[in-house]
Amino acid sequence: MKKIMILVVLALCLCGCTAKENSSKKQDVTEISWYMMKDEAIADANVSAFNKLLKKKGYNLSVKFQYIDSDITGEEPSKYHTSLEKEIKDQKVDLANLGWEFSVYPGLCAEFVRKEYCYSLDDWLGTKEGKKIADLYDEEIWDSCRVDGKVVAFPNERINASVSTVVSFNDKYVPQKLSEKWDGTWNGLYNILDNIKLPKGVYPIKGYPTIDGFTGMEGMSRYVIQDDMVYDKETKTFQSLFDVQQFHDYCKFLHQCVKKGYLFDVEMGTFLYDNDIYQSMEDGNYAVALFNDTADQDQVTTYSADTFSVQNTMGTQTMVAENSKHRDEAVQLMSALRSDDELAQTLLYGTIGIDYVKEGQETIDGEWSLGLADGVLPSITTDDETFRQYKQNLMTSDKREKSGIVGFYPNYVTLREDMEQYISLLQKYENCWLDDDFEQNYQKAQKKIRTASNSLFTGVNEQLQNWFDNKEK
Question: In 57-153, which ranges are continuous DSSP H helix?
């Protein structure tokens, strides 16, 4: 009898131990290390609330953000990627933001991706769970995540496609009979400015010139700008900015405006208005807002670009590390964030009613680097209830045109010197519209850039043709 009792007690003990072990296993939580730029840090309260919500929803996952120094000025464009590469080699990385692209170093993110640190998502996207995520995005959005044919990242929902505002006329100072007759050209815009009289303290132009500020204008639907090169949809080749007539017309417009005093002492990419003038413009004392500058929507006649295309934006997308110790769990976390709007909102904003209050369509902006937006309220003026609806409407819009090159990321390894020379010449001549003899200096710049960049465009266009050939196979 005693022997039987011992066996029963032993069995119960073993069962108890097994139950405890199973319970312990169920409670094991995998911590995902998500690397980002230090400038894009996520609020601790948001992370804490997110991890609690993950547990509540039954996920054995949590996230810990790790931050790396970066150089947003572009003086050290590789700073973030150099540090991230070291962390990946030490197997510390599960997820990572792919960082920013810089005009001084085109192709930086694709160059990093080609080192094969990113887990290819193609097989997973073909699974039952993966297809749910694949179906959330347009095919071209996924193409923008491809390098050399492989999907290497999850898309950033905040970017890729938008209809840009080209010009906003302030109805207080520009009669609608003038603004409504605008023909969409720079010359036509200059003629409008030349035919209005402004009271003292009202400035002709609000905004500052950017090198790609001309891209939304009349006739530009034929072109796509990538790495400060211009892709021509008709010839299916890349060329220099200075070889595009619309860029010349843009520079001529800026030149005329400077001569007439419509633009102040400005250069490409800089804003040299003094604070009082800037504030006065912000208060609505301007005639025309250019270059996607914000304008008061209550008192303006706004013109948007006739068309838009999905763009290549490898930067700011989110990769899963190929050598991650928790690769499957990292993919699971990304899938959850894109399929569960409550999880996405909590990571972006924190706890509803504590960290933020949601009223109608008003929310604070979440960090762009998280790559999340579709399931949350839009930060733009729109009648759509969520950004997802906005994007779906955008993708089915009549204004959408296929760019033809989404997924083509030139490999500059053998062309880096040529590209650096091209960028250097652009920087040297981009402000030629400030020169008294604009036409002569523009032609001089055009000729010099065309000669010096011949090998660059030959190489890029050869790669492009190979890319086209591979797509057709």
Answer: 79-89, 108-113, 122-125, 128-134, 139-143
> Residue 415 to residues 257, 270, 284, 454: CA-CA distances in angstroms?
37, 29, 46, 11
pLDDT at 215: 65
pLDDT band at residue 356 under the 50/70/90 scheme: low
Q: Beta strand pairing status for 61-68 and 30-37?
A: parallel
What is the average pLDDT score of the chain? 83
CB 460 within 8 A of CB 238: yes
Beta bridge partners of 360: none
CA atoms within 13 A on the CB side of 101: 18
Q: Using CA atoms, how far apart are residues 291 and 308, in angstroms rounded to an integer?
A: 16
Q: Is pTM beyond 0.85 here?
A: no
3-state secondary structure 372-406: CCCCCCCCCCCCCCCHHHHHHHHHCCCCECCCCCC
Q: How many CB atoms lie within 10 A of CB 269?
A: 14
What burial letters (b/e) apply to 161-177, b meaning 16+ CB within 10 Å? bbeebbbbbbebbbeee
H or E segment to which residue 240 belongs: strand 237-240
* Alpha-carbon gap, residue 195 to 182, rounded angstroms: 12
How far is the CA of 101 from the CAs of 15, 70, 78, 153, 316, in angstroms?
A: 57, 12, 10, 15, 8
Q: Distance between CA 190 and CA 257 in Å, rounded?
A: 8
Between the CA of residue 342 and those of 57, 218, 337, 338, what are the distances in Å? Answer: 11, 42, 8, 10
